[in-house]
Write a structure and sequence with these properties.
The complex is a heterodimer of chains A (232) and B (476). With 232 residues, chain A is an alpha/beta fold. Chain A has eight helices and eleven strands. Helix content of chain A is 39%, strand content 20%. In chain A, 41% of the residues are buried. Chain B is an alpha+beta fold. Chain B has a five-stranded antiparallel β-sheet with strand order 2-1-5-4-3. In chain B, strands 7-9-10-12-11 form a five-stranded mixed β-sheet, with helices on one face. A two-stranded antiparallel sheet of chain B has the order 6-8. Classes of the chains: A alpha/beta (232), B alpha+beta (476).
Chain lengths: 232, 476
């Protein structure tokens, strides 16, 4: 990754309020990151297609093309980690944002320290397997942690970084149930009180990619009241 | 009109339904009494006439038989014998009177029936050679006395006929009619009750709908009806419900508009303050550093206050909704306690049978409840000393106990009001952090779960307050 190679991590902030944009930029630059700004959805998409960022921060309340649409468009181009910013903890907005492809969300006003912690969690290197195995198999599913590759029936499946990390966490504890709290902590670096819907929406998205029939999952199964587990 | 006034004058507390029922019952009672009276009167007249006619016919025949005996041999013993042979029923008592000088000598068939049964008026008429009959009422028992002259006034034949049978028949008729009237009245009352229910159903539907709206189901509407009289009510009720829903919707939108308006500048402030705080050490003087510290501390308070205000405005607008999920209550309590990072964390005690319990609850709201109670204990009670999760029937109790001065009786309700800072003897120690919405929000969150919160003395008798949240949680 670029920040490992000594090149500054680039963060794109999409926010129509200039004062917020500037203040957030100052706070993020204090962390040593390079910040690109966009004040509209259109500007953000243009900017991103010219020079992709390492993390994108999108306010969903944008004039013109809204945040959900920007999120979907960027997701079509890249698996870059996306953080949605919502002005209200409205269940509908949050789930819609996650379903549009966001990896995480923050509710305004958030503490800049919280934002940088989230960004760092999303930029973390994918943890390799505890066992050191190079190939993990679950039936027709094959995971190669070193290469960050997942194949289903021999065909490569394209996962975002967060989806991959989620799958790998489940794969590292084969057949064992992981609670949402544990997954929130290991995949997103969140505490116990984080929003379990993050896990639910990501599991849903993961299933559409790794399951033959996402409505009747065979690999990523829900254990009611406990959490999720991966099986063959 | 007078009837209508009387109807209106029925005590209003009886209620419309009772009044309609009563009116139906009263009307049917009146009608059935009239019918019964008429039936009784006609039947009675009929029966009496029949009885009179048959008794008179019988008496004429009997008189002829006796006349032959009197003609042949007017000896008392033979006449009595002839009377005995008439075969009159026990209800008829024949008497023959024979002229004896100026008076009459009675020859009764039975010694119990004397001449005194025959009224003098009748006797006088018969003495003139005219047959006559008369109804007497001796000792309350009406009797028919028929008198027929024999042998050109030489003697007279009387028959005293009791009306007992007729009387019995009339009595049982009266009983039947009374029973019929009572049944008719009951049927009338029942019909009235049923009709009033039917008529008033639209009204009770309005009541149910109003209750549903008050309970938060704002989209409740009355179904349209074809009855033009009722449609006015239905239409205006639905208009009112619509207006109310729009109004509450607007309030809800206002809350989210305010949220956006307040949060944006707060966002800028929070980010800017954090940039300044990073440079705290580079600042030239103590005053700048103190100012940055103050800003940073109150930034957090400001954010909390805005969050709380928005939360409570959602309750006020009726837009607060539970987001239920399965929660491990004991684990949640432990996490909430450890998150506060108190210097002296409270002891956590969980009822043994609740240890692994999963409940369906709104996790975020439960965390707010616990965090606010722990924060309140820190601000006013020297920190929580014990947090307990207890079973109580179908509910779970979460109790937070502190070692402060406790809350006096008169403040135990008021303390859950908005912006009622502290409690007990004015402000308790360590005050200043509370923004006064914490406990009000605890109450609202608990209510949304169908539970409640109260404060009491510590059960172990030591000084301190015990805040108890009761949640009727369905076990998952």
């Amino acid at each position: 990754m670029r920040h490992d190679a000594g090149v500054a991590t680039r963060i794109l902030t999409v926010e129509d309020d200039e004062r917020i944009r500037t203040a957030v930029k100052l706070a993020l630059e204090d962390e040593g990151w390079k910040v690109d700004e966009a004040d509209t959805g259109e500007a953000a998409l243009e900017r991103f297609s010219q020079s992709p960022s390492d993390v994108v921060l999108i306010d969903i309340m944008l004039p013109g093309v809204d945040g959900f649409e920007v999120c979907r468009s960027i997701r079509r181009l890249s698996d870059v980690p996306i953080i949605m910013v919502t002005a209200r903890d409205d269940t509908h907005d949050i789930v819609a944002g996650l379903e549009a492809g966001a990896d995480d969300y923050l509710t305004k006003p958030f503490a800049p320290k919280e934002l940088s912690a989230r960004i760092r969690a999303l930029l973390r290197r994918v943890r390799t397997t505890d066992s050191g195995a190079t190939h993990l198999r679950f039936g027709d599913l094959e995971i190669v942690p070193e290469e960050g590759v997942v194949r289903r029936g021999g065909d490569e499946v394209h996962l975002t970084k967060t989806e991959f990390r989620l799958l790998l966490e489940l794969a590292n504890s084969p057949g064992r149930v992981l609670s949402r709290e544990v997954l929130l902590e290991r995949v997103w670096g969140h505490g116990y009180f984080a929003d379990g819907r993050l896990v639910d929406v990501h599991v849903r998205r993961l299933r559409t990619k790794v399951e033959a029939d996402p409505a009747n999952p065979r690999h990523v199964v829900t254990v009611r009241g406990l959490g999720y587990k991966l099986q063959t | 009109m007078a009837g209508l006034r009387a109807w209106r004058a029925l005590p209003a507390r009886l209620g419309l339904r009772a009044r309609i029922t009563f009116t139906f019952a009263a009307t049917t009672a009146l009608l059935s009494a009239l019918m019964a009276g008429a039936t009784f009167g006609l039947t009675r007249e009929n029966l009496v006439n029949q009885r009179e006619a048959s008794a008179t016919r019988q008496a004429r025949q009997n008189a002829e038989t006796i006349a032959q005996q009197v003609d042949a041999n007017p000896v008392d013993e033979l006449i009595r014998e002839a009377m005995g042979e008439l075969g009159t029923p026990t209800s008829s008592r024949p008497i023959v009177e024979v002229r004896d000088g100026d008076g009459w000598r009675p020859i009764p068939l039975r010694p119990t029936t004397g001449a005194e049964a025959i009224p003098d008026e009748l006797r006088a008429t018969v003495a003139d050679g005219v047959p006559a009959r008369m109804i007497t009422d001796v000792g309350g028992d009406p009797e028919l006395v028929v008198g027929i002259p024999i042998n050109d006034d030489a003697a007279a034949y009387y028959e005293v006929v009791s009306f007992g049978e007729v009387q019995d028949t009339l009595r049982s008729l009266a009983a039947s009619l009374l029973a019929a009237s009572v049944i008719t009245t009951l049927v009338g009352g029942t019909l009235g009750y049923w009709l009033s229910r039917r008529t008033l159903r639209p009204l009770s539907n309005v009541g149910l709908a109003a209750e549903a709206i008050a309970g938060g189901r704002l989209d409740t509407r009355l179904e349209g009806t074809e009855d033009p009289d009722l449609n006015v009510l239905v239409t205006s009720f639905n208009h009112m419900a619509q207006a109310l829903e729009e109004r509450i919707d607007r309030d809800g939108r206002f809350a989210s508009d305010v949220s956006h308006e307040l949060r944006s500048p707060l966002m800028t402030l929070a980010a800017s303050v954090s940039v300044l705080a990073t440079r705290r050490e580079e600042m030239p003087d103590d005053a700048s550093r103190s100012a940055v510290d103050l800003m940073e501390a109150d930034m957090a308070r400001f954010q909390q206050l805005v969050d709380d205000l928005l939360e409570i405005s959602r309750f006020d607008a009726g837009v607060a909704r539970l987001s239920l999920e399965e929660v491990r209550l004991p684990e949640l309590v432990r996490q909430a306690v450890s998150q506060r990072r108190a210097e002296k964390p409270p002891a956590i005690e969980v009822d043994a049978d609740l240890a692994g319990m999963l409940v369906r609850a709104d996790k975020r709201r439960l965390v707010r409840i616990l965090d606010n109670l722990l924060g309140n204990a820190e601000a006013y009670g020297g920190g929580a000393e014990r947090v307990a999760v207890e079973a109580a029937g179908d509910s779970v109790l979460i109790a937070v106990e502190d070692g402060g001065p406790g809350v006096s009786e008169e403040n135990r309700e008021r303390i859950f009001d908005r912006f009622s800072r502290g409690g007990g003897a004015g402000r308790r120690s360590g005050g200043g952090d509370g923004v006064g919405l914490g406990l009000a929000l605890v109450a609202e969150h608990a209510r949304l779960h169908g539970g409640r919160v109260w404060v009491e003395d510590r059960p172990d008798g030591r000084s301190g307050a015990r805040f108890v949240v009761q949640l009727p949680v369905g076990r998952a």
